[in-house]
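Q&A log
Question type: sequence-to-structure
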Amino acid sequence: MTSVKEFRIEEEATADDLGRGSFVFTDDYSVFDWGKMPDQIPQKGATLCTMGAFNFELLEAEGVPTHYRGVVENGDVIDLEDASHPPWEMAIELTQVPDLPHEGREYDYDSYHDAAGENYLVPLEIVFRNRVPVGSSLRSRTEPADHGLAFDEWPDEAVDLDEPIVEFTTKYEESDRQLGPDEADEIAGKASIADLESVAREVNRIVTEQADSAGLVHEDGKIECLYYQGEIRVADVVGTFDENRFSYEGSQLSKEVLRQYHKRTQPEWVQAVDAAKAEAKREDVADWKSLCDADPEPLAESVLETARDMYCAGANAYTGREFFDAPPLSSAIGAVQRL
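Response status: OK
Response body:
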């Protein structure tokens, strides 16, 4: 299904009913929309499953509908607190995901929604931002004054926002696009973008409060949602170090560490990715990756181990439980700072 998790179907979704299945998390990772990278990060998949399950259970306790059913252990669906080891499979309800036809970079959302009916995955990502860290796309698209900030230009440090910003991007296009409210509303179909924004703000509040209780700063993140007979439910996975950016004592605690590391150590590949995306846009081609003339190089074993400790120590800190054999978070972050 994606570059970092696989998909199991037990019962297909229909126009009238949700199906059943599961996510099977892997130790793969992806940066810059590349898809599966040459390496794996040990236990990364289990940290994503654990944090995702933990957050879904927080959301359900706060009355936020989700597609989560539990984690899977020995074929049984159980609550996270009953798991005897860090889970790697998450049981979920399934919705319909129709085909999205396109010609070049023109996508036929009318066809998607004609097939979707009242049971479908909303083809949007809803992004929320509490802080603008170095590396955030907001810096390249807007000026500080656009958000009421008293800076002439973005400083070389993270900037806190007085109020969270919620934005919409495409989900299934080859390269994600930022959307204005009118286009987002059209792409969302029967799902109201006002309702989607409301759900995103509530998810952001819950994750931010949990992070704060663990001594972490929740900088930004995203959710995906399904629409089922008039109700919006949170889908995919929520509040992990891949979907969200956290920081600890001023240092990044998220996949952003890997993005920035590749920018520093493999700039030629990162530049080739950017050039391929720009060329695809000029030529109205959806598959930008076929235009890229470089591939990423594998990472050193020591870097993968540092990334593993970051994910595991961070998951322990966020959940307040020792799911993983990992160093203290301060030690894991110290190693990240030395990369």
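Response note: The longest helix spans residues 193-213.
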